[in-house]
Amino acid sequence: MARLSIPQLPPYAAEAIARHQVEAPVKLGAIANDLGVKVVISDLPLAVSGMLVLDKDDRQTWTIKVNRHEHRNRQRFTIAHEIAHYVLHRDVIGNELVDDTFYRSGLSERREFEANALAAEILMPWHLITQLMRDGERDVNKLAEALQVSPAAMNIRLGVLT
Ligand SMILES: [Zn+2]
């Protein structure tokens, strides 16, 4: 299985992520919490999946807003995608970043690719996928269910052409 290349993560982020990837599903809220990022399920426009917003007053606290109208698995991917932007790109974001439903935000395509790649690493770490497979789980839908991601996301992760 090919690995997507993502930049080397700073240790604080790598540790915060790994700490909550011990069992399926990955504890996404706990990762955000350890990183000091708030997650708020919000009433966002239909065309928007998520946002990463810098606090206007303290200028250092970041909040992820995720669209309450989207499916829970989709929300999890969006939160992971915004966590990735926070870890990799917050220095170039300014005050806020708005990701549409195609995860286009005005950042470069390369940065969106990095955010998607890291989101996949966060939600679907290989060690949990191989552990589930070793336990006998081969069905993509069941693997997706165990990790609380969409079957489409799991297919992409596994390199299955759809
Ligand atoms: Zn994005």
Automatic annotation (TrEMBL):
For this protein, the record's Pfam families field holds:
Peptidase_M78
Can you tell which superkingdom this protein's organism belongs to? Bacteria
IrrE N-terminal-like domain span: 33-158
* InterPro entries (alphabetical): IrrE_HExxH, Rad_response_metalloprotease
Checking PANTHER family in the record gives: ANTITOXIN HIGA1 (PTHR43236), BLL0069 PROTEIN (PTHR43236:SF2)
Q: What is this protein called?
A: IrrE N-terminal-like domain-containing protein
Q: What is the native source organism of this protein? A: Novosphingobium mathurense
